[in-house]
Design a protein that fits this description.
The protein has 7 helices and 8 strands. The chain has 223 residues and is of the alpha+beta class.
C-alpha cells in the first residue's frame, strides 16, 4: 500500500524506521518508495545517514534495526512498569473516546482497580482506585479469566451490569509470552459506548490496539 508523503524530516525518518522495525525489506528501493511514500533519492540518503549513526545496520542487501536504536529503546523502557505504562494507556483512551478508563489486576478470584483516567465531564462511574470485586463481576475480570483459559476473544461487553446505567467494555492485557497481566475496561453512561455501529467499531479498535501495545511494552520492559 502506498503511503502519503511524510511532511516533515522526523516523519520521513519514522516512516523508514517503522518499515524496518516491522520486518520490511529495504533491498528494493522502488518497493520501499511505494511503501513509505518517499522518493528513491530521499530513501538512499536516509538509509545511509541512519546506518552511519548506528540506528540501522546493513544485512546483506537490506537493513535491520541497529544497536544504537535498540539501546535507546531499552533505556526508555527500563524502570517502566505496569503503573506508569498503564496510566499512559488509560489517559490516551479516555481523552480519545471521552469515557472513563480503568486498569484492573487479578489475584485468584478477585480483581482490584489499580488505575483510572476520567474525561473532563461529570464522573460516569463511581468505581474508584482500590475497589476490589469478584473476578467474574465485571468485564475486566471476565476478560482476564478468558485470557487465562487461552480464549483470545478480543473484547467483553456489558450493559448496566456491575453499575446500573453504566455500560462497559474490556480487553485483557497479555504479554508476548501469553501471560495475562491485567485488563483495561472502558465505562460510560448507557448508549455512549456503542450508540452506532461506527462508534462501537471505534471503541473496540481503540481498546484492542491499546491493550496490544501495552502488552508488548510490558514484555519489552520485563526483558
Amino acid at each position: 500500500m502506498t503511503r502519503d508523503l511524510p511532511a516533515s524530516a522526523p516523519a520521513r525518518v519514522l516512516a523508514v524506521l517503522e518499515h524496518v522495525a516491522g520486518g520490511g525489506s529495504t533491498a528494493n528501493l522502488s518497493e520501499l518508495a511505494r511503501t513509505t511514500g518517499l522518493n528513491r533519492i530521499t530513501l538512499m540518503r536516509l538509509l545511509a545517514d541512519l546506518t552511519e549513526e548506528g540506528v540501522l545496520e546493513r544485512t546483506g542487501a537490506g537493513h535491520r534495526v541497529g544497536q544504537r536504536l535498540l539501546l535507546l529503546s531499552a533505556a526508555a523502557l527500563s524502570g517502566q512498569e505496569l503503573t506508569s505504562l498503564g496510566q499512559r494507556t488509560l489517559d490516551g483512551l479516555s481523552a480519545a473516546l471521552g469515557v472513563s478508563a480503568y486498569l484492573v489486576v487479578a489475584e485468584d478470584d478477585r480483581i482490584t482497580y489499580l488505575l483510572r483516567a476520567i474525561p473532563d465531564t461529570p464522573l460516569v462511574s463511581q468505581v474508584t482506585v482500590g475497589t476490589v470485586v469478584p473476578i467474574d463481576a465485571t468485564t475486566g475480570g471476565r476478560a482476564v479469566l478468558a485470557a487465562r483459559a487461552g480464549d483470545r476473544a478480543p473484547v467483553f461487553w456489558s450493559r448496566s451490569g456491575y453499575e446500573p446505567g453504566i455500560d462497559s467494555v474490556a480487553a485483557a492485557v497479555v504479554r508476548p509470552d501469553g501471560a495475562p497481566v491485567a485488563a483495561v475496561s472502558l465505562a460510560a453512561p448507557s448508549g455512549r459506548l456503542d450508540h452506532s455501529p461506527a462508534r462501537r467499531a471505534e471503541v473496540e479498535d481503540a481498546l484492542i490496539t491499546a491493550v496490544a501495545d501495552l502488552g508488548a511494552l510490558l514484555g519489552a520492559a520485563r526483558g
